[in-house]
Amino acid sequence: MKKNNKLKRKINNYLFDHLYLKIFLENSKSIIMCVLAGILFAFGFACFITPVNNTDLAIVTGGVSGVSQNIYLIIRFFNEDIKLSDIASIFYFALNIPIFIFAFFAITKKFAIYSLISVLVSSIFIRIFPNWIVAVQEVTADHGGIIARVVFGAACTGVSSAIAYRADASCGGIDVFSYYFALKKSTSVGKYAIMINGLIITLYTVLSIIQTPSEWGKGVLVFFFATTYLFVVAIIIDFINVRNKKVQIQIITSKEHMAEVLLANFPHSATIVKGKGAYSGTERQILFMVVSSVEVNKVVLLCKRVDEHVFISVNSLIQVYGNFFIKPIE
Known about the structure:
The protein is α+β, with helices and mostly antiparallel strands. The chain folds into two domains: 2-240, no CATH class; 246-317, Alpha-Beta Plaits (2-Layer Sandwich). The chain has 13 helices and four strands. The protein has a four-stranded antiparallel β-sheet with strand order 2-3-1-4, covered by helices on one side. A hairpin with a 6-residue loop joins strand 2 (271-276) and strand 3. Helix 2 runs parallel beside helix 6, helix 2 packs antiparallel against helix 8 (146-166) and helix 3 (63-76) runs parallel beside helix 10 (190-211). The chain is elongated. The protein starts with a helix and ends in a 13-residue tail after the last strand.
């Protein structure tokens, strides 16, 4: 552990003296993550979400891909031979253009560019992966059928969106709006995705019932599977994307300068309460500090360096009101 920390410090010191190399490596890492997210999303959509034939149940994904599915249903009124993969590939990119313009001005230029990379990769691979769809869905048909498609499709979509979020980007579409509202409200992304996507799958259900009124039960079944899909995606995203998750740290110490050290190393303030040990009767300082979940380990390590006998408790928070600093997207 000490060797790893020492190596990290050496690398950080080296990169600190080589700024352009640091910027290049950070951008390269983000681009690789966006490409990976795009490929994973395309694989999940093409191999699990898209039905093998028109008799199979479709899984409505929500987002721009869900809007593409709604457009596909509308076009099928006039042309029953149209393929979902063709519609999805075209409209998935076309519908994202105005959304990227919004992201460019409302979030950051970097966020919009990285998101565009992810969507371009997804659009390309959505056309490539259908060659695998029969083989993949033959396996899922023998191991859970539609349930397996829902779970694996949601896993691919959720992980791909979470990877993009960790790179300060998105997989485009509704993810952009969910991320924007989550930043403004300083809360989780998943619940906004559920609200917006819920409207999309409802529209899909209505269109599917209108198209085949005799199979209204099938349309309702699609709605329930789509709802399950959305909840799984939201849970995965909120589990992996911890940017807006906050925790309260309670620090009990005898070192009076602990607060000064914390304020010098973190962009958050703290509240100090005087206390006394029940057993020893010694006076203590109790510090209450709210930090992002990604900062917890750094706070704990720093506190232990200042006071090896420090007592720390960590509690997860649902929401924080007031001024709380979150590192902005570059």
